[in-house]
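Table S2 (text version). Query chain:
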Amino acid sequence: MCRKDYVGAVRKIREANYLPAICGRVCPQESQCESLCVMGKKLSPVAIGKLERFVADYEMKNNLFTPPLLPEKRQEKVAIVGSGPSGLTCAAELAQMGYQVTVFEALHAVGGVLRYGIPEFRLPKEILDLETDRIKALGVEIYTNFVIGRTATMTSCSMSGDSRPYSSVRGPGQPTFMGFRGRA
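Corresponding structure-token output:
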């Protein structure tokens, strides 16, 4: 950052967090990072979320994204059920390790709580879609409108041999009813 190497900075961030444009907007850095920052003892803590967002936006506005070099593809396949923050992060991490990753999302669009639980002014959908495209650039396949158990079973979804499932489902698309009389 000090050398104004913003692309280098965002690439370094992506080594630990493949969703910097999202996390720079929605993660509670004030309570999780900045409150523990040693700079805050005598000065202001490092505004890590704002820095993360800035370098991710710089990369996006200047169309400077390039996918990282990936290792040779492994034989093992991983099926991820759910495309929320956990599923997307898991997909990116595993793809960067060479695994063949497929994500199955029950709803019509990717993102889970990122899409359906965070308002547009806080996380624009175009940012979510862009970060999703960057995960696809790692070789991750994503299927929407795919309900495991209805559209197909887990065993029929390329789950053979050296395959492993991962479920990130919490179900933001599933309503929870309070159980009182007269509810709709």
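Notes on Table S2: Residues 85 and 111 are 7 Å apart (CA to CA). The beta strands are 77-81, 100-104, 141-143, 163-167.
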